[in-house]
Amino acid sequence: MNNTNKQRSFNSTKLKHFVIFIALVLLSILFLSPIFIVLLNSFKGKFFISETPFLFPNKETYVGIANYVNGIRKVEFIKAFGYSVFITVFSVGTIILFTSMTGWYITRVKTKFTSILYYLFVFSMIVPFQMVMFTMSKTANMLHLDNPFGIILIYLGFGAGLSVFMFSGFVKSIPIDVEEAASIDGCNPLQTYFLIVFPMLKPTAVTVAILNAMWIWNDYLLPNLVIGTEYKTIPIALQKLKDAYGSVDMGARMALLVLSIVPIIIFYLICQKHIIKGVAAGAVKG
User: Which residues contact 112 (CB under 8 A, 6 or more apart)?
Assistant: First the structure.
């Protein structure tokens, strides 16, 4: 009788796992289908995309890499790609460096000032960007931050809230004895941070890097408000794919969408194993 119950329980568990697996596969197909559709249409002529958006290219609709060539030529995609890479890489690096130091400081130094500072960072996460965007764009113009270098500081400001929150949570899980031992060995605070603390922050740092990189790479509104069309990033360049009469070259747009998606997907796949660990460490511990 016991063996029968065990067998039934085993079969029930297998069935449950199979159902969950099928559900996850269906969800994956659902989430990936838009990317697949964009990829398909990037090889079709622009006049066929609206007529047969879900069909594979055939002899009549297939245009090879013509859409990619036209898109790159029309919007100076290489230059836009360079601006996007520059802004994303240096913004993410700046956010990680300064917010990790801030999270470490406000966690280890217990004063009213650091407590207020922490809650200000947390509060900044719930303030909608639309509330401050016009004031921010005017201030950026007055302070001459309306360029690829200045927008890095603006991204630091907008990305600091969540990043400091995550780093602070993880620092609470680090035994302070490690830092005290480093201090006894002669390390000053900067040496303690860079040699001892920061290497231990790697899971959260990778998570912060992924979240901010995806946001900054795909961001349209902030670059459009601050640096405009003079320094076009990829999202801004994609909006310029219009002819003289306002018609959009959908073939070229699909092709450039593929080119803009590929780098961030590669970056995510390389780093994604750290996401769950980093989010759990930053949001739960402490």
Answer: none
CA distance 130 to 135: 10
CB atoms within 10 A of CB 173: 13
Treating both helix axes as pointing N-terminal to C-terminal, what angle do 77-108 and 66-75 enclose, rounded to 10 degrees? 70
On whether the CB atoms of residues 182 and 200 are closer than 8 A, the answer is: no
Which residue is associated with the tokens 């290219």?
A: 57
Computed over every residue of the chain, the mean pLDDT equals 84
- State the DSSP string of 77-115: HHHHHHHHHHHHHHHHHHHHHHHHHHHHHHHHS-SHHHH
Task: Return the closest-CA partner of residue 118 out of 128, 108, 127.
Answer: 108
Amino acid at 75: V
Would you state the pLDDT for residue 213? 92
Q: In the beta sheet, which residues pair with residue 242?
A: 248
Query: Model confidence over 98-113: pLDDT tens digits?
Result: 999 999 999 988 899 9
Q: What are phi and psi of 57, to 5 degrees?
A: -60, 140
* Interatomic CA distance for residues 247 and 197, integer angstroms: 54
User: Exposure of 183 by Cβ count < 10 A (0-12 exposed, 13-18 middle, 19+ buried)?
Assistant: middle
Tell me the domains of the chain and their CATH numbers.
66-283 (1.10.3720.10)
The pTM score is 0.83
CB 61 within 8 A of CB 52: yes
